[in-house]
Design goal:
Blueprint: H1 2-12, E1 26-31, E2 39-41, E3 56-62, E4 65-71, E5 76-79, E6 86-87, H2 91-95, E7 101-103, E8 110-118, E9 121-131, H3 141-164, H4 170-193, H5 201-229, H6 234-263, H7 269-322
Parallel strand pairs: 1-9
Antiparallel strand pairs: 2-7, 3-4, 3-8, 4-5, 6-7, 8-9
Helix pairs in contact: 3-4, 3-7, 4-5, 5-6, 5-7, 6-7
Length: 323
């Protein structure tokens, strides 16, 4: 009986361990690709007992690594994220419970944890910061696939003309050089285009370099190839020039889309659609151009075989008559 009375008294008169509470125990911060002047990781304690920052400890961690800490007893701020413009918390705000972090530059994404202590009372909060793709074109697999397809098609076109047409005239040499320049510009633009998560001037320059000059270079080289090969078949010639006309049209559309994309942050859905449609149908027209040239080469090969058969027939007749 005495034992149960002891347990009951211990339960009633046990020391109460308080916990610091935040306005939100867990929170998500979503950052788009547009550069911003300030990024805030919110954290506000709502049940501080002492109105004194000297009895408080604040620690912020990014993926379990301490990036900021405040020791009220020593009045000491330790800041390890100064390269991202992290500002020290003001003592008056800490005393009021506001332990939010303020960045003048966009910090790395990931999980941030805030741990606050007032005397022996503790509390923690998690803030998940992530970049949000609010638009389709810049880092989407679709647009990268289309540009990679352009690169592959251009290389295939160089190999095709070099292997089957065996032309070394001035127009063909100029076409090869211009197309190689376009491939180099496309590769450079793709490298700049994928540099980081923010829609910054470097990304914009990469988009323009990857779209406008290379597509124009490929178009000019196609025209030089057609003129240099002197295609005699009417259907093949008309098909090649029609594909070049379509390439020019969709190059204009892709250029307009790229200019629209770099003017706004984030780019509007309309500008994204214009850009993707221009690049996609330009690629289709490029493939059509190769198909027309392949058709011409097939006709030329077929004509050559027919001539060989015609030349072989008189020789066989002469041999028969000689016998």
């Amino acid at each position: 009986m005495i034992f149960y009375v002891f347990l009951l008294s211990f339960y009633v008169f046990r020391p109460v361990v308080l916990q610091l509470n935040y306005e939100k125990r867990e929170e998500n911060v979503r950052i788009n690709q547009c550069p911003t002047n300030q990024t805030i990781l919110p954290a506000r304690v709502i049940n501080l007992q002492k109105d004194n920052w000297r009895v408080m400890l604040v620690t912020w961690k990014h993926d379990n690594e301490v990036i900021y800490s405040f020791n009220g007893e020593l009045n000491l701020h330790v800041n390890k994220y100064e390269q991202f413009g992290l500002q020290n918390c003001q003592n008056e705000k800490i005393q009021a419970g506001d332990v939010s972090l303020y960045f003048s530059k966009t910090p790395p994404d990931g999980e941030y944890t805030c741990e606050t202590t007032e005397l022996s009372t503790e509390g923690s909060k998690k803030v998940h910061m992530q970049f949000v793709m609010e638009w389709l074109c810049i880092s989407s697999p679709g647009i990268i696939t289309i540009k990679a397809l352009l690169l592959v098609v251009s290389i295939c076109e160089i190999i095709f003309f070099w292997k089957y047409l065996h032309k070394t005239s001035g127009r063909f040499i100029s076409g090869y050089c211009i197309q190689i320049i376009g491939i180099i510009l496309l590769a450079v633009g793709l490298c700049l285009f994928q540099n980081g998560n923010l829609w910054n001037p470097l990304q914009k320059a990469g988009l323009v370099v990857a779209v406008c000059p290379p597509l124009l270079c490929f178009l000019i080289s196609d025209v030089l190839f057609i003129c240099g090969s002197k295609i005699k078949n009417t259907r093949a010639r008309i098909g090649c020039f029609c594909c070049c006309g379509l390439q020019f049209l969709f190059w204009l559309i892709a250029t307009v889309g790229a200019i629209m994309c770099i003017q706004d942050c984030p780019p509007s859905i309309t500008s994204q659609i214009v850009l993707i449609v221009g690049i996609l149908f330009y690629t289709i027209a490029e493939i059509g151009h190769i198909c027309c040239c392949s058709y011409y080469c097939w006709l030329k090969h077929k004509e050559g075989c027919s001539n060989q058969m015609v030349n072989a027939t008189p020789n066989s007749n002469n041999e028969m008559s000689g016998k």
